[in-house]
Design goal:
alpha/beta, Rossmann fold, 9-stranded mixed beta sheet, 33% helix
């Protein structure tokens, strides 16, 4: 075998090895899809005027605390339960995640809903008013207890959201509980997969927010 033939053979062998090595490389991991609750609620209505030509009535203030959640809901995983198999086990989707923890997404939605009829304050704003004006607004605390796609069968599922809420009023002798209640909403998923669960959970969250806002107005 001539030196030229040997060089060509070695070059071909090296190329074949390189091609085989490239073919053995794993595919690039698929990027998880990120979801939130969508663009938001309708713009709040303008507060009514107390009389024709007068300035709009000031909205009552309410302090909205951070929404609490148990450790299972601290992350951004999209969770589901197989009610027909083992409803006690929470399972995560592999390629579907929330853009923020569900408690934060729910608080954003709740703030939007409350702002139609209230001036909504965060913890720091509420503390500032207490320091400068010597008064505290009523406070709403919400705990997210369940937030999952619940499969009743392999083909049928719902978005399940459950929260507990406590409305308190600060008084010289301490906080007084004005009202306390739990809220649960179930909305059907259009498809039996992660994207369907996202739509169902967003709809169930909006239903819970609507009930919460109406309840706050009645309780005060």
């Amino acid at each position: 075998m001539t030196s030229m033939t040997l060089k060509n053979s070695l070059a071909g062998l090296v190329a074949a090895i390189c091609l085989a090595g490239c073919g053995a490389l794993p595919d690039k991991p698929a990027r998880a899809a990120l979801y939130d609750f969508g663009p938001g609620l309708a713009a709040p209505a303008a507060p009514p005027a107390s009389a024709a030509g007068s300035a709009p009535r000031a909205l009552p203030m309410i302090a909205l605390a951070e929404v609490d959640a148990n450790s299972r809901l601290d992350g951004t995983q999209l969770l589901y339960r197989l009610g027909y198999a083992d409803s006690n086990e929470l399972r995560p989707y592999g390629q579907s995640r929330w853009s923020q923890p569900p408690a934060q997404l729910l608080r954003q939605r709740l703030r939007e809903g409350l702002s139609a009829g209230h001036t909504v304050l965060g913890p720091e704003e509420s503390a500032t008013i207490a320091r400068t004006e010597g008064r505290l607004p009523d406070s709403l605390r919400v705990t997210l207890e369940e937030f999952s796609q619940y499969f009743e069968s392999p083909e049928r599922s719902v978005g399940l959201v459950r929260v507990s809420a406590t409305l308190t009023r600060s008084q010289p002798g301490g906080d007084r509980v004005l009202a306390q209640r739990s809220f649960t909403a179930r909305k059907p998923a259009p498809t039996a997969d992660g994207p369907g669960g996202v739509k169902a959970l967003a709809a169930a969250s909006d239903a819970v927010v609507a009930e919460l806002v109406a309840w706050v107005d009645q309780a005060r």
